Amino acid sequence: MSNALRFLKNLSFPSLCRSPHSAISKPITSMEVEVKLRLPNAVSHQRVSSILSPYHLKTHAQENIFFDGANSELSSKLAVLRLRFYDLDAQCIVSLKAKPVISNGVSRIEEDEEPIDPSIGRACVSDPWRLLLIDSSRVIQRVRDEYGIGEKGLVCLGGFRNVRAVYEWKGLKLELDETHYEFGMNYEIECESSDPEKAKDLIEELLKSHGIEYSYSTVSKFAIFRSGKLPQRFVRAYHARYNQKTAGDLWRTRCEKRDLDGPDM
């Protein structure tokens, strides 16, 4: 029995989720704007990592788990609920993302997020209906009120793992991702910015100056996960290099080798 379930055995789940002095705050929905550039393979990923190594801040092991209404109440409105666990459950963030648009390597998506107790998050992965009991969560309240989740509640869609290295470079916060799906690996550079075109120009200049191949990302990580296959470009490069290893093996190796810091907020 997991620690989370042992804890829940002795305390009712609602008592963990409610505070007599807490109040639901107003929704804080922001537009997340990010540059997203895709790298073809592990070799390119390693080259970028080496070039940026003097600017390295931290590295996270992330696990992303997604949820929808049992009757597709969220996805039918271009939304999804996500739990993200950092560094072997050091922290958990619940996010509501909606109305994604990605064009010319720039992604825009509505986002509302907040931290929750990781042990509660894990219990919700096992029993998704528990999410709707978290009365103190602004995000969960929005899921209930705005998306009309029915009596059947939420269902877990599964998810994927990601190793994210974070760098501070030329005033930009760069995130170098190595994403582990059951069906393959994906590599990407992300950069959240209020001036995405300027940020994109700087990153492209860096890659071009070192002869590193890249392309504009055309779909989100979640969309790749739901499709069950990698985007067609670069797929051959993945299979040539990783046909002897599973995504889980590679993720575990990364976790063992890297000194992981706490998650950035």
From TrEMBL:
Cited SMART domains: CYTH
Gene3D superfamilies from the UniProt entry: Hypothetical Protein Pfu-838710-001
InterPro entries in the record: CYTH-like_dom_sf (IPR033469), CYTH_domain (IPR023577)
Sequence ranges assigned to domain CYTH in this UniProt record: 30-229
Molecular function terms, GO-annotated: pyrophosphatase activity
Domain of life: Eukaryota
Entry-linked Pfam families: CYTH (PF01928)
Protein name (record): Triphosphate tunel metalloenzyme 3
Organism: Nicotiana tabacum (Common tobacco)
Annotated gene: LOC107765315
